[in-house]
Amino acid sequence: MEKSQTTMIKKVLDKHSRISELDDFLRNSLSDAGYSSVEITNTPVGTNLNIFVNKPGLVIGRRGAGIRSLTESIETTFKLSNPQISVTEVKVPELNAAIMASRLASSVNRGTPIRRAANWNMRMIMNAGARGVEISVAGKMRSDRANYEKFKAGVVPKAGFTASQSVDTSSIESLLKVGLVGIKVSIALPEKYVSEFKHKPKVSTETPTETPTETPTETPT
Q1: DSSP labels, 82-101
Q2: Higher per-residue confidence, 30 vs 161
Q3: Which 3 state secondary structure label does DSSP give 143?
């Protein structure tokens, strides 16, 4: 492999690593606001960050104090030049896998049994109009021995074009007293669902037969 190719691959890996670190930082800092994701755009003036959360007011703070503090923290920690932060509200948080995974982790941390919390989250997601939901929980949930449980409702495509376009998936980790638990939430979104089959109306190939019309006969007078 040439040196230029090695340098390019290294730059791409470093970029994705920095994005992943920033995503983890925002997830931990904005967990109370219902953090979902972030979009990063580099411009000649600086770096624009569009943060998607469930409660924008908690991010902005009183008179913008929260967003100023967040900007300073990001600029110091990640050495970004002139970061400009905008906050966008997630309209339907029940159809956002990252927010629902965070909610489930918070419920489990507060002591709610995992089965009860998972079923409650599934009902909320399905009532919001999702075609299906699948929640996987793995780790030390109740004892020192690791377990695995799956909760599912509706239809969740697993592979192919339909799954890549219509399924929103997110994973999160939660540290309990017993040990570490991994939570994965997959939601089949209704507005992005693409049906694999389309039913066409049946077209008749038979030619219609004409019914003979009777001509009235004159009776002789």
Answers
A1: SEEEEEEE-S-GGG-HHHHH
A2: 30
A3: coil
